[in-house]
Specification:
The chain has helices at 10-19, 31-40, 69-76, 83-92, 109-118, 129-138; strands at residues 2-6, 24-28, 46-49, 101-104, 125-126. It has a five-stranded parallel beta sheet with strand order 2-1-3-4-5, with helices on both faces. The protein is an alpha/beta fold and 149 residues long.
Length: 149
């Protein structure tokens, strides 16, 4: 399987690499590199997306009540260079990696929900990083059920 991982945290990247040993892995710490591979036509079977990349680390603010999810996201998280940029590219280019399973593994609840909504037409899954790792590690070198089929 060919897998794209968009993740800037070194420890998480190492865990992904170890858990997915035996697969072809493209690891990107930045949106630009991930978009480059997608635009070049690399066919990924699975795409793992984080939201908060490098300079864009945020936290949710559950104490804010009265805002819609979209209002909250736009106030806090709507910056270029986040994983949402990749999600929007995939949404707007449905023929790119059309059969790939997309897994949003961000721990940022608000942002990951917005990305899931952006990718509804692509049937993306939203699984927090610990759940993804547990699944991958429990399923050994096959990496769990990573493909859509």
């Amino acid at each position: 399987m060919t897998i794209l991982i968009v993740e800037d945290d070194l420890a998480r990247a190492e865990l992904f690499t170890e858990a997915l040993r035996g697969h072809t892995i493209y690891l990107s710490k930045t949106v630009d590199r991930a978009l480059q591979w997608l635009k070049e036509g690399v066919e990924f079977d699975t795409i793992f997306l984080d939201h908060d990349l490098l300079d864009h680390h945020y936290s949710d603010h559950p104490e804010l009540i009265g805002e819609t999810l979209e209002q909250r996201y736009n106030r806090i998280h709507n910056h270029p260079g986040t994983g949402r940029e990749v999600a929007l590219f995939l949404r707007d280019n449905p023929s790119v990696c059309k059969d790939a399973r997309i897994i949003i593994h961000s721990m940022n609840r608000t942002a990951s929900e917005m990305m899931r909504r952006d990718l509804e037409s692509r049937s993306a899954d939203k699984l927090p990083f610990p759940v993804v790792m547990l699944t991958l590690l429990q399923n050994g070198e096959n990496g769990g059920r990573l493909s859509k089929n």
